[in-house]
Amino acid sequence: MYLKGSKLSLNKKRHRPNGWLILLLVVGIGVLLYFNLVVVPVMNPPFVPTPTPTRDPLSYIEEADQLALEGKYIQAVEVYQGAINADPTNIQNYLKIARLQIYTNQLTQAQVNAQNAILLDNTSSDAFALLAWAKGFQREYLAAEVDAKKAIELDMNSGLAHATYAYILALRVEANMHELDTMDRAIEESRTALALEPNLLEAHWARGYVLEITSNYEEAVRELEAAVALNPNIARVFMALGRNMINTGQLDQAVYQFTKAYSLNPTDPTPNLFISRIYGMLGEWEKGIQYGTAALRDGPSDPTLYANLGTLYFRKGQYNQAVEYLELAVRGGSNEDGVAVEGIPLSYEVSVIETYSRYGLALARINRCSEAITVANALLANVADNENAVYNANEMIKTCEENLLNPPTATPAPTPTNVTGPTPTAQP
After folding, report:
1. How far is residue 395 from each of residues 317, 388, 391, 407, measured CA to CA in Å?
2. What separation in angstroms does the CA of 35 have from each of 28, 41, 169?
3. Cα–Cα distance measured from residue 357 to residue 354, given in angstroms and rounded to the nearest whole number
4. Given its phi and psi angles, is residue 334 left (phi above 0), alpha (psi -120 to 50 degrees) or beta?
5. Measured distance CA(161)–CA(147) in Å, rounded
6. Which of 347, 262, 342, 357 lies closest to 302, judged by CA?
7. Pairwise CA distance, residues 204 & 147, whole Å
8. How many CB atoms lie within 10 A of CB 199?
9. Phi, psi values for residue 333, rounded to 5°
10. Are the beta carbons of 250 and 220 closer than 8 angstroms?
């Protein structure tokens, strides 16, 4: 039955199925299944860092060993650090990096790595020896001696341990921190190190230093040449060789050794300082000033470098320039670039008395006599037992008295006699 006028019907109208829609749904379901079963399992969870491949620790060691063999110590240290980061339980990496850091004067870091090695194995003689050497070069002599003795206790046959102990004992003698038998012990330990390991660099190095301290310079040269033959990449050894060549009169060869040292460590002002002193000894003032200036560029806060340059100008007779540098050495202050310089305290050390004497004499010779008299009084009051200091103080007073009678009109010529004593001896 139908209702007239009604749009409703009790009979349903049939529609033909849409084939394209069904196909699209099937494909969509397939894509979702593939994504869920294949893609999702290999995806990283959100907000979690993507893992990166790690380098084999052995590859770091191989690379660092090769760099060390080539004498590229700075680069080798960096790669050994990578090996330590990859495997912090390998004690050999700490020993290798500490040794290279001693060679390259990275002493604080060397001490830390030697201590880390001891934390891993407190029976390692090499670790205690390297720790002692790092401390010794930082002037921690007594603590270094304790560690050196421990190294020998752990291995009586270690050439490194005996060499380290010999070097530290010699350092104590050089620093006037020794007992009556300290030098004898240093000599004996250096001989023991060589007897145990005649091809060990450190054994020849330590023996050379002991011979230097005992003024056996020719023998020291031979030992240090042997050390260089074993390893030609350590600036400190070339510096030691150069010092001893100065004392044997081989000045040209000494300059060569210091130049080599500077090429290995071009941030250290010491090689250029020693070259400057050699040219000063030869009276070649311009070359001496050139190298003294180069040293000062590398160490602008070091008062001894100002003292050296001031000495060269003083010996050349250029007293105004001498005062400029000697004043910073004695009184301290800031240089023209604003770098702070701490003055050298007056003491009985020969080189200090010479620096104060030259400063006071230079002041007197340019008629800055109130300052010169102040320096003279300081010498007479504080180092009166030193004959040179007293003589030079009286010369300052005498020069100033002469200036009152005959005021200087120009910079006076250099005094032919050296009233301020000899050029300071090169110190290790």
Report:
1. 16, 10, 6, 16
2. 11, 9, 74
3. 5
4. beta
5. 9
6. 342
7. 21
8. 10
9. 140, -150
10. no
Q: Which of 246, 238, 223, 227 is nearest to 271 (CA)?
A: 238
Reading the block at residue 342, the tokens are 């701490």
Which run of H or E residues covers position 55? none
**CB neighbours of residue 40 within 10 Å:** 9
Q: What pTM, to 2 d.p., does this model score?
A: 0.81
How far is residue 192's CA from residue 173's CA, in Å, rounded to a whole number?
A: 19
Cα angle, residue 87 at apex, residues 109 and 113 outer, rounded to 5°? 15
Name the DSSP class of 43. S
Measured distance CA(178)–CA(210) in Å, rounded: 14
Q: How many residues does the chain have?
A: 428
* Cα separation, 186 vs 125, whole angstroms: 19
Q: Which amino acid is at 224?
A: L
* Helix ranges restricted to H, 299-383: 303-316, 319-331, 350-365, 369-382
pLDDT, block means (10 residues), the chain with 428 residues: 38 51 59 52 48 69 93 95 94 97 96 97 98 97 97 98 98 93 97 98 98 98 98 97 97 98 95 98 97 97 98 97 98 95 96 97 97 97 97 97 79 40 35
What DSSP designation does 113 have? H
Contact indicator for 132, 165 with CB cutoff of 8 Å: yes
Rounded Cα–Cα distance for residues 357 and 353 (Å) = 6
Tokens representing 346 are 């007056």
**74/348 Cα distance (integer angstroms):** 39
Q: For residue 92, give every residue at least 6 positions away whose Cβ sits within 8 Å of its Cβ, in sequence order, or none.
A: none
